[in-house]
């Protein structure tokens, strides 16, 4: 086994590796290979921490790191870092390669003076590399209520005392959302790879309509593209035949979804559904938040959505 810095000649091979590693793992299809492709020219990219792992002369793993920041409660910005995608070829998964690659890269990061890593991931794996819930050290996730212990938002202080008891809120760097901000670029890039079938799989992260937040759990929940194929970004009530079914602002969508605050709080005795004037029916929005620490008022729910909705594909950068 050998770990070395990535070279330009590796780029396409590593992007294909990343695509194979992430396809249908966290969502139908994947975006991570495009994130990597675009990130290499991003000023937040750290080339000194861009590593590949080889076995018998074959690249089987890759990890990259990025600059990030935390907004402290007084409004000042505090430097932090993140990493990912981290990819291991499917033939080599669950054999310890990913942990070895990550631990190697974290040691190198520590040696460069990088003091704090924040990231989203599965704590059952990343705890073995020293990560824990970020909420335990008062780092909050931008898209979740401040008081929540977000199970997928993790942090590790690489240099003891670097964070030093501060409190603030983290948002992933904008470079990780490039497929949302440049969908045409992503589609053109994806078309350069052999076709693969997208599908819902057990164990994927919860998927939500990128317009209204409705949970997407099966093909029948999804909208359709102009050619009739499934669109995994939007629900069938928001999107069909390649276009949105209603013209509305983000504020109007939030106002509509706020009707379901009772269901979010788990107080409703029957299933809510509601129709817009054109007949669109929306059900189950917000069910993922039923386990809130305390019931929310309508205004509190709207405030939470104002933190979440700007990250949805339809509303990003609007």
List the helices and strands and how they pair.
Blueprint: E1 2-5, H1 11-22, H2 32-39, E2 51-55, E3 58-72, E4 77-88, H3 97-111, E5 116-120, H4 123-126, E6 132-133, E7 139-141, E8 153-157, E9 168-170, H5 178-181, H6 183-190, E10 207-208, E11 215-216, E12 222-224, E13 230-235, E14 239-240, E15 243-244, H7 250-257, H8 261-264, E16 273-275, E17 281-283, H9 298-308
Parallel strand pairs: 7-9
Antiparallel strand pairs: 1-2, 2-3, 3-4, 3-9, 5-8, 6-8, 10-11, 12-13, 14-15, 16-17
Number of strands: 17
Per CATH, the class of the largest domain reads: Alpha Beta
Describe the biggest sheet?
6 strands, mixed
Sum up the overall morphology in one term: globular
Strand content: 15-25%
Structural class: alpha+beta
What is the arithmetic mean of pLDDT? 89
Low-confidence segments, given as residue ranges, are 267-291
Query: What fold name stands as the CATH topology of the largest domain?
Result: Aminopeptidase
User: How much is the radius of gyration in Å?
Assistant: 21 Å
By CATH's scheme, which homologous superfamily of the largest domain applies?
A: Gcn5-related N-acetyltransferase (GNAT)
Number of helices: 9
Which characteristics define this entry?
318 residues; alpha+beta; Aminopeptidase; six-stranded mixed beta sheet; 9 helices
Description:
- The chain has 318 residues and is of the alpha+beta class.
- It has 2 domains: 2-176, Aminopeptidase (3-Layer(aba) Sandwich); 206-311, no CATH class.
- The protein is built from 9 helices and 17 strands.
- The strands form 6 sheets. Strands 1, 2, 3, 4, 7 and 9 form a 6-stranded mixed β-sheet that branches. The protein has a 3-stranded antiparallel β-sheet with strand order 5-8-6, with no helix packed on it. Strands 10-11 form a two-stranded antiparallel ribbon.
- The longest helix is centred in the N-terminal third of the chain and has 15 residues, at 97-111.
- The termini are far apart.
